[in-house]
Amino acid sequence: MTVPKGKRMAISIQENMAINVCPGPIQPIRQISAYFPRVSTTSNLTDSLLSNPSGCPSGAVGETAHEGLLSPPSVGPAGSGGTLSAMSSMDTSIEVDSCDSDDNTSLGTLEFELLYETATSSLHCTVIRAKGLKPMDFNGLADPYVKLHLLPGPCKANKLKTKIVKNTLNPVWNETLTYCGITVEDMYRKTLRVSVCDEDKLTHNEFIGESRVALRRVKPDKPKHYNICLEHPPPLSSPTAMSSALRGISCYLKEWDSEQQCNLEERGRLLLYLQFLPPFQNSEKEGQKDAKEQAKGGLCVGVRRCAHLAAMDVNGFSDPYVKIYLKPDLKKKSKHKTGVIKKTLNPEFNEEFFYEITFNELSTKTLEVTVWDYDLGRSNDFIGGVSLGCNSQGDALQHWIDCLKNKGQKVERWHTLTNDLPGSTI
Description:
The protein is α+β, with helices and mostly antiparallel strands. The protein has helices at about 15-20, 30-35, 45-50, 60-70, 85-90, 100-105, 155-160, 185-190, 245-265, 280, 290-295, 395-405, and strands at about 110-115, 120-130, 145-150, 160, 170-180, 190-200, 205-215, 225-230, 270-275, 300-305, 320-325, 335, 350-355, 365-375, 380-390, 410-415.
């Protein structure tokens, strides 16, 4: 473009901004961890260097590998050398999820302790403190809290949450969160997800980092201490990264896990205690004013609590209550019902019911316990149930036998609610 003599070339505002803002291609900024990578055993870089495709001597290969790992990468055209390609293959071998990574250390660390009590079938998680959390607010601080989830399992039924500590990056909680109804099988196949979030009143709460612990590593009745780095959520596995055999195994395990989850975990669990009171012990029981009941004895059924119930309402919760029957019930007088607890998936009832019955009659009776969701103005929803008697199976049968063997003692046990209850009243 030629400009007449004595005239200045005019540049528009758009051209001026384009010149100032776009000086050229922007190169990515290297991190410190890229200069000191940890090469995994499956690294492609080691295989490519040892195979020596260029035919150079072995000493030159060693020098090239040493320079590629410790020297910064040279930026140039794709065909100018092998340094850039070596660095690209080296990047794929860096363990991004390790605690030495810049991304993970910038999220902070979390200290907590796990204890599983076999006597009460409960898992206690004591959240102690966090250090060096990532700033999430404009003031360079955060309002952190910790959430717990049991995987696999419904989110709202398994969520526990600590208190919120305001304006700090090094919060101290010293708070114990407890999961009830956790069996030994759950400890072998479940994972505890511990996530740290930042509370925002005006917008949605922000995610800071998480850590996942396999519960099978926690020994029963022995506390286990953890002090680990927070990580980003794991990415979804790519089907191209696995062989066809691994993909088939993965699909089979997912289908099996979803089937077990639907049959067992989706309904929830129920904590009951049974106690057969002989006539001489029943006469001393407080609150029993009927002389016939005191002379005959009977069965005492205690409904303690439920855990991890299925959500039946739109809000993701339920309004649960429990009904019990002692069948066969020709006169239909054995029905008892607890109170309704609103908007919860882990209700605590602590209610007790008494049946006047002899010890010999118990061998022909079946105790049906069902959990329902109360709905105003329409029929209640069936959540799950369990049947206890001589014709039952598994834990239900064992619970009934233990009650008959231990007269006068309270026998307490957790039961898994099933969707299909044979001979139920639904």
